[in-house]
Structure formats: C-alpha cells, structure tokens
Design goal:
24 helices, Heat Shock Protein 90, binds ligand TTJ, Ribosomal Protein S5, domain 2, Rossmann fold, 21% strand, 5-stranded mixed sheet
Amino acid sequence: MAISEEFVSKEYNAKDIEVLEGLEAVRLRPGMYIGTTGAKGLHHILWEIVDNSLDEICNGFGTRVDIVIYPDGSVSVEDDGRGIPVDKHPTLGISGVEVVFTQLHAGGKFNNDNYTFSGGLHGVGASVTNALSEWLDVTIYKNGKVYKQEFHSPEVDGKVKSGIPRTPLVETGETTKKHGTYVRFMPDRRVFGKELLSYQTIVTHVREQAFLNRGITISVEDKRQLDDDLNSLKSVFCYERGLSDFVQYLNDGKEPLFPEPIEFEVKQDRFFLGLSMQHTGAYTESIFSYVNSIPTTEGGTHEVGFKSALTKVMNDYARKRGLLKDKDPNLQGEDFREGLTCVLSIRMQNVQFEGQTKTKLGNPEIRPLVESIVMEKLDAYLSEKKHFDAGDKIIEKALGAAKVREAGKKAKELARQKNNANTNMLIGKLANCTGRKPELNELFIVEGDSAGGSAKQGRDRRFQAILPLRGKPINAEKKRIDQLLSNEEICTIISALGANFDTEFNVNALKFGKVIILADADQDGAHIRSILLTFFFRYMKELITEGHLYIGMPPLYKVEKKDVIRYGYDDAALDKIIEEVGRNYKLQRYKGLGEMNPEQLWETTLNPETRCLTRVSIDDAAAADRMITTLMGDNVDARKAYIYQFANFNRKDEIEKKGYLNV
Ligand code: TTJ
C-alpha cells in the first residue's frame, strides 16, 4: 500500500505514542508476556489468537475455527463469529479492531461484558501477538461488508516499532451473508529465531480444546507438508459428546470397567461444571481438570471438591448396595480413584491461579460448590437401576485397591527398611565420591554399563559419583507403588539419593547438590530421560523445584585437526566448526556415550568448566508428565515423536546459547 509511510507518520503519531510504548515493552521483554521465545512462546502467540475465536464460538456466536500454516511460516486463524467490532471505541477513539491489536490487555477491557466466561483469562491478548509479529493482517466480515487492516513491526532508525498500523481500517468490499474474523500473521524471526510452528503441537492443543467445547469444529491445515497428490496435511476435530469423548480417547487401549462414561453438566448463572469419568483396569488415577479451558495441572480447589464428593457418594453407595457392611470401615478416597480417568471442566469468573506453574486453582469458594454439585449429580446418576452395573464395578475395583493399599504400605515399609539398613548392597553399582559436602557433590545417572564404566574412570572422584543404569527404569506412570519399588533401578536411585521418596521425600537429606541425567541423544535415551523425569516429578518433586535436577548433554560430533579437537552438539554447530577449521579434518560421530573414552567423556560432559548442563524446570517436567500420560492416546508414533521432541527441548535451548564447545 502506497499510503502506508505517510499514513504512519502523520495520522497515527500522536495517539499511538502510549500504545507503542505498551507494545514496545512486549518487544523488549517478550519473556514477561509469553514466558519464552522458544517453541513454547511461539505457539503461545498463536493460542492468543485462537483463544479469541474460541471465546466467540463457545459463547454461541459461530460454529468453527480454521487454522492454516503457510509455507512462508505465517499462520492464519479464521472464525465465523460476529466479527471484531469496527466502530470507534467510545473512550479510546480508535476502532475496536485497533484496540484489540494495539492495546495491551485489551482483552480485559473489551471482552468481559460480551462474554460470561472468557477462555483467554490467562492470556495477554492479541496485541502481544501483533507486537511479536513481523506483520499481521486482519479481515472482518460484518454487516454485509468486508473490512481490512494491516499492522507491522518495521525498523526505524535502528529501533523496532512493534505492531503499528500500516493501513487504517478500510472497507474493501461487500459480502452477502458471510460473517467472521480472519487474522494472518508472521511470527517475527527477530524474536523467535529459527523456531517453527509445529503441526503436532497445534493439533494436540486444538484437539484438547475441541474435547472441552462440545460441538465446535476446529481444523488445522499445514500447507508446508504436502502428500503425493499435493494435498496439504489436515485434521478436523469436532466432538459431539465433548468430555465423554475425551475420556474415551484417554482410555483408548485400556480396559473400561463399564461401557459408557458417567457424565453430567450443570449451569448456574455465572458458573458451569462439566464432568465425565470412567474406571479402567489400570492402577493410576488420571484426573484432568480445566478452568475456562485452561489445564489446571496442579489441581486446586475444584479437584479437591470433586475428590471429596466422589469418596462420600461412593461409600454411601457401597453401603446402600450392601457391598460394604456396617462393621466395615469406609474405603479411602484413593481407593475410588485407582484406574479412574476423569475430565473435570469448570467455567467461572475471577479465577485465581496459584502454584509453582500457576496451574492450580486457588479460589476457596469453588471447593464446596463443586463438592455439592458433584454429590448431587453423581448420587442421582447412581440411584438409577441402569447404572448399578457401573457403580458396583467401581466398588469392586475400590475394594481391590484397598487390599493392595495395605500390601503397598508393607512394600513401602520394607523398601524403607532396606534403604536404611542395607544401603550398601542396594547401591552396589554406585561409584561414590569422596567429598563430604553433599551440596558440592554431583550424581551422574548414566545410561548403560559401558558409558558408566567410562564415566567412572573419567570423573573427578572427589565430588562426582556415577550410577550406571542397566535397562530402562520402569515407567512410574504405569505402575502401582509396590511394583515401582520392586524395580531395581528405581530402588537404586532412591537409595543413592538418600532422601527417601513420595510423601516422605526430604530434600534437605539429599546426598548430592546436583543430580545429572546422562543419556544418549537418540530415541532410547530420550525415552529414558522422560521416564526418569516422570519419576522425579511424581515422587521427588522438590528435587526439581529446588533446582537439583539437570540434564547433561554429550556432544554428537568430534572434529580433529592436528592438535585441535572440537566437539559439536548438533548439526548446525558441526557446520560452523567445519567452516572454521577448514579442510583436512577428521570427523567422528558419536552414536552413544559408550563410544567415548574416559578422557573424552571428562572433557565434553563431566568437566564443570567445559560441559553443557541444563537445569530441569518444573514446567519441563510437568509438560513431560502431561504428555507422557495423556494427550497422545494410544498413538505410539506420535507419543514417541513427542517424547523425543520434548526430551531434546532442553538441549536445543542450551545449544542456541552455546552452539559448540571448545576444549
Ligand atoms: C466482541 O463483542 C462484540 C462482537 O464481537 C465480539 C468479538 O470480538 N468477536 C470476535 C473476536 N470474534 N472473533 C474474534 C477474533 C478472531 C481472531 C481470529 C482474532 C482476534 C483477535 C479476535
């Protein structure tokens, strides 16, 4: 558009000053608004846009949301809602469209009167997406007309003006019936580097949203990926039964104890609750809770209310049905949750999030509210004769769980005694260090005996201990605690750390200040890393929250030329090294840790002066846990791919900072 330069300089100057300051703050500190400028942040700016469309559709003003990824790296979101308001905002004096895309936190000012519940409550608004985009175009179909406006982030005098209008909002045509909003934007490479949108990540997120919002249709199309007929990769999600479809998806591959999930929905003026649950033969509980479509991974008052209602109603039911006798004690809450898959979704106003990852609902009034609703609805459900089969199956499962709980207690007690009395035997494999200051000591958990052997020889034994792992440790997610404790690798780790586990975990008793997971950079290694992360996340959380858990990063390549040796940690780093050393070099590709001799392992991976370590954050661990447990269903390939991607996530971040290592 030819008008743009003049337009920007003349008409928009004055009133945009404060706006620009707002969006420039986002540019200066993207992390404050979207967490990271890695893959997560990049997707976050897409969710900001998608959330707006979902809000509109979920409030009944449309039926579908379509997402398209283009070969140039841009992405579009379109809905068939009412269209963003185009008239002038009464106090700000600019169009509604401009408010949405240029005013920080416009969501709050703008949406609350229009919607009872807003999914984007956690969101920072579409203006943040605009601020972090090279360009953003919006088209609105409304009142029989088509409107367009463009924004961009040009560099002026060496400074980025972020998210300024490139054109005013203009009426460009007519339309008969079409209504809705279309937004396409280009995430800014100056912010996100070479990071790319992931079709798989978008599909997983969108599928979850489609489960949570029954009946709406969301599609994702990736025009970067074409099949032989030149059709792009595409998925469409629409679930008529919503939460129950979600539960059945989660239970895919498990054995449900009764055919139809138990489900109910309640709307009370400004509050909504939806619940679906079904037990399977599994031993773990999988409760997925959401507030305004945001996953509450750490639980909170709504989950507490649900759990206590479940315990009360089921004990009551068991007595009514004669499955518990007067003399029998009540079953415990955890008994009723063995093998439970449950999705709890509430919508409410004035949400307070708490917890380490701000994914725990804090509102105290919600606990009794959810408890009373679930008690009433679950009781009513189970009082129908046709549901006795489901009810009885749950009781039967809980009675079994109670028995195992007693057995588990004994196993745990036994393990504890073993840990205390027999530590030396159990940690026979551990090559301990000699240092007496736990906070300075490091424990390397190393994949494979041969790498373990090299590490034992290559380490500095004054402060580095090595624990080689033989096979794959048992997946903590899949097993009961007594089975977990019969796994030698798990017991060895618990003993070596010397700080007990589960509710008795005592971070102050740790024998090592740093616990470093060292696995190969292949899929097997990634799997082992994620199993260990899941175990630590579930049974030794403070190890992560207090910053003691690390991932070690062995190099993939060694380049040797005369007496110069350099190590590359990924392909890009290798290219760079080769460019720098010139011709006639010797290249070695490490397939695994086991291929390195003790000196090499010391130089690249053990030596604190030269190694690359990444501290595991609770966010990483929670994401691993969530992904491993759930959203992949029984799609083994997707699960593997995701685990691999996740497990390398740390690696990638670190490599960006460091690239390669010189010794
Ligand atoms: C707000 O209340 C009046 C009628 O329009 C409502 C609204 O803003 N609807 C709306 C916003 N529908 N879709 C959007 C939207 C869609 C995308 C793709 C991006 C953004 C920022 C908003």
